[in-house]
Specification:
There is one protein chain. This protein is α/β, with parallel strands linked by helices. The protein contains 8 helices and 5 strands. Helix 4 runs antiparallel to helix 5.
């Protein structure tokens, strides 16, 4: 491999740690100042600042190094788009030290299989999450986000609004909530009135 190496690592939540992925990238010869990170971004979202920086940092002859394909993309179309974009720019993609060669039929097949498994993993996670939420909801343990104002506070807010003495901004300040919350409370009243 000639040219420079840039590394990319990602974790889905702020509570996860990127140390293991960074160590893999360092072990694969990526300089620490050329490792780009995304923390708290899922692989299904294409808009990731660290990924954008990593893609911008590589030029023809360079190599983008990623510990595993599922860190780069979690859907087949996204993985293909990124892979094809790199190839068209003359950038090599290294997945955990294995070079992706789109001109080799086996390499292309292997890449597509990895992308399919990454997407399958995301789909399973979504399915399990929905099942868990359905069980929690049936047991009454999943009720959604609680309102910022109690029913009594909402009634008071509505009364103050109807008096015409306060603007929406005044009410937001008076009740220590955002203007959007005030509008939501007032909208519920309008929608509940026959």
């Amino acid at each position: 491999m000639s040219g420079l190496k840039a590394g990319y690592a990602r974790c889905s939540t702020d509570m996860q740690d990127l140390t293991a992925q960074k160590e893999i990238l360092l072990g694969l010869g990526v300089a620490e100042d050329r490792i780009f990170l995304d923390k708290g971004f899922t692989g299904t979202k294409r808009e990731r600042p660290g990924l954008d920086q990593a893609l911008a940092a590589v030029r023809a002859g360079d190599t983008l190094v990623v510990p595993k394909l599922d860190r780069l993309a979690r859907s087949v179309p996204d993985a293909r788009d990124i892979g094809d974009s790199l190839v068209s720019r003359g950038v090599t993609l290294s997945l955990g030290g294995q070079l992706y060669d789109p001109n080799d039929p086996m390499g292309k097949m292997f890449f597509n299989i990895l992308a399919t498994f990454a997407e399958f993993e995301v789909d399973l996670l979504r399915m399990r999450t929905r099942e868990g939420m359905a069980v929690a909801r049936s047991k009454g343990k999943l009720r959604g986000k609680q309102p910022k104002l109690t029913a009594r506070q909402q009634a008071h807010l509505i009364k103050e609004h109807k008096s015409g003495e306060h603007t929406i901004a005044d009410l937001a300040e008076l009740f220590s909530v955002s203007r959007a919350t005030v509008y939501r409370v007032l909208e519920r009243v309008v929608n509940d009135v026959p």
